[in-house]
Write a structure and sequence with these properties.
By secondary structure, the protein is an alpha/beta fold. Helix content is 61%, strand content 15%. The chain contains six helices and seven strands. A seven-stranded mixed beta barrel has the order 1-4-3-2-6-5-7. Helix 4 packs across helix 5. The longest helix has 66 residues. It starts with a helix and ends in an 11-residue tail after the last helix.
Length: 329
């Protein structure tokens, strides 16, 4: 082999090694000449994510998964993401692990939490560590679908057992009963329609009466307002005040008259008591008049004396000279 051939072979080997090294770094997601930072995210499980899988933001690749490891204690999985330092992360970012294609490749996507707010993200005690959530892979979805299919099969069997011909007949009978009840309700509504119309008419008449009453009240208020504006109300109040004053004067006069009447009644009462005492004395025969009223002999003497006086007067009228002797010198 000549010296030139050896140089060519050496250059080919060096080029192959360079391609291998560059390819390895490229597969690891290393971008030369670009400053990168590491971001960690916390998950309950890693799903199918592997070192070297793509990290995306809004569907655009921005880095690679650098490391996937269990958290101390094994309660969670921590993934280290290598992304460009110039990439602006959204507000309240979260990381979602999901299938990238139908061939089993996975990816880590960074979203604002508001994009998928219902996912149960695993929060981290370190505020610098992003919350994460891993979507179930196809195998898990298939297992869940199989379990759902089994549950549906069991449910179908139970429905088949429950839904017999007798059940169908009962349902038909129930529908017929519902139809009958509906017909009865329709008849009841129709029978009550007239009553409802009458009630509506009464309500309309009542409304009309209330409207007329309102018009009357407004007219009365207008008259009151006019009376106030023209001063008639003030005159009425003045007349009422004068009438009240006159009533007060009349009341005072009636009080004076009542006092005078009381005094007169007291005097009359005294007089009645005096008359009663006199009558009692006459009845008991006390005093001259009492003895005169009670002594029949004295009364008879007075009668005889009166008769003598009457006879004397008659005789004096007939014979005055007998009693008068007039001598003239």
């Amino acid at each position: 082999m000549t010296r030139g051939s050896e140089v060519k072979v050496g250059l080919a080997v060096i080029a192959a090694l360079a391609v291998i090294v560059v390819g390895t770094f490229w597969l690891k997601g290393t971008r030369f000449g670009v400053e990168e930072i590491s971001v960690q995210a916390r998950f309950r499980e890693a799903g199918q994510i592997l070192v070297g899988n793509t990290v995306k933001l809004r569907g655009v690749p921005i880095g690679r998964v650098e490391e996937v490891a269990l958290e101390p204690g094994g309660q969670a999985v921590v993934a280290t993401l290598r992304i460009g330092a110039e990439v602006p992360l959204p507000d309240d970012p979260v990381v979602i692990l999901s299938p990238e294609s139908m061939f089993g490749d996975w990816q880590a996507e960074i979203f604002p939490r508001t994009t998928f707010p219902r996912y149960a993200y695993l929060e981290a005690p370190d505020p610098q560590m992003l919350p994460g959530y891993a979507l179930p892979d196809i195998s898990r979805l298939t297992a869940v679908a199989d379990e759902i299919a089994q549950n549906l099969r069991v449910l179908t069997d139970r429905v088949s057992e429950a839904f017999t011909e007798e059940t169908a007949n009962n349902i038909v009978e129930m529908i017929a009963n519902i139809q009958e009840v509906s017909d009865q309700l329709t008849g009841l509504v129709a029978s009550q329609q007239q009553s409802l119309d009458a009630v509506a008419a009464d309500l309309q008449n009542t409304t009309q009466a209330l409207g007329e009453t309102a018009v009357t009240i407004r007219r009365a208020f207008a008259q009151v307002d006019t009376a106030i504006g023209e001063g008639r109300l003030a005159r009425i109040v003045s007349n009422v005040e004068r009438t009240t004053a006159q009533a007060d004067s009349l009341t005072a006069a009636l009080l004076v008259a009542a006092r005078e009447l009381q005094e007169t009644a007291d005097v009359a009462d005294d007089a009645f008591r005096s008359v009663d005492a006199i009558a009692t004395a006459l009845e008991e025969g006390r005093g001259t008049l009492g003895r005169l009223l009670n002594d029949t002999t004295l009364f008879a003497g007075i009668v005889d004396t009166n008769a003598v006086l009457q006879a004397l007067l008659v005789d004096f009228q007939r014979n005055p000279r007998k009693y008068i002797n007039l001598t003239v010198f």
